[in-house]
Fold this protein.
Amino acid sequence: MLSRIRRMAEAARARTEEDQQRQQVIGPERFDDPLAARTEWVPAVEGGTNFCTRVLVQVSPRRVEFRPTTAARVVPIVFVLVGLAALAFAVWALLNERGYFVGTMISLAVGCLFVVGGATVCCLATRRIAFDQGAGCFWKGGSTPISPAGIQSRTSAAPLAEIHAVQLLSEFIEGSRSSSHDAGSTSSYHSYEINLVLKDGSRINVVDHGDLARIRQDAGQLARFLDVPIWDVTSART
């Protein structure tokens, strides 16, 4: 337990040092753009996945969307099914008075956790992420376009006219070791995220997953669609 806590602390310190080094390596001169000096160069969201969760799809000449991959749809469904199975066992034990009180309570707790967690992840994984030139907006969630005047918060929506650049970053996710000794293999991986950099220097996260080739392709396509530069620094600290 102590060795695991020590490894977690070392991983957190390593991530902090990596973020500080990235801030030093990546400067506004690299992009020849003064706004880069007012933009953060650390991940906008913590964590990520080691597989591709979304791909950019051209819906029409004036609209693109990041749509979930098959894997992103299946994984949360599996969690929900496991949770339903645990709940079914708990209900069966209660109805038949089998006396498995501890096991029944554990099954109820695990079942509820998996069902709620899986449903939540499924909703997040399948919500719409769209860029619509006709509406003049980017937004997350909802099935219909919104207008620039209808934007209440810049955390999940923004007028396309306010998007200054597409930012592509990498983040190292430290996994747990397979052995109690430091020589064991790890499940560590890199996750990559696309952020929108607005004209005031603030950022909005769009997607975050582990397929570098795909996310680079999508970031480039998105930048061309928006007619803005792409700030790709995934090769700086990968």
Remarks:
- Residues 70-95 form the longest helix (26 residues).
- Helices lie at 2-25, 28-31, 70-95, 101-126, 212-226.
- The beta strands are 54-60, 63-68, 129-132, 137-140, 157-159, 163-173, 189-198, 203-209, 230-232.
- Residues 177-185 have pLDDT under 50 and may be disordered.
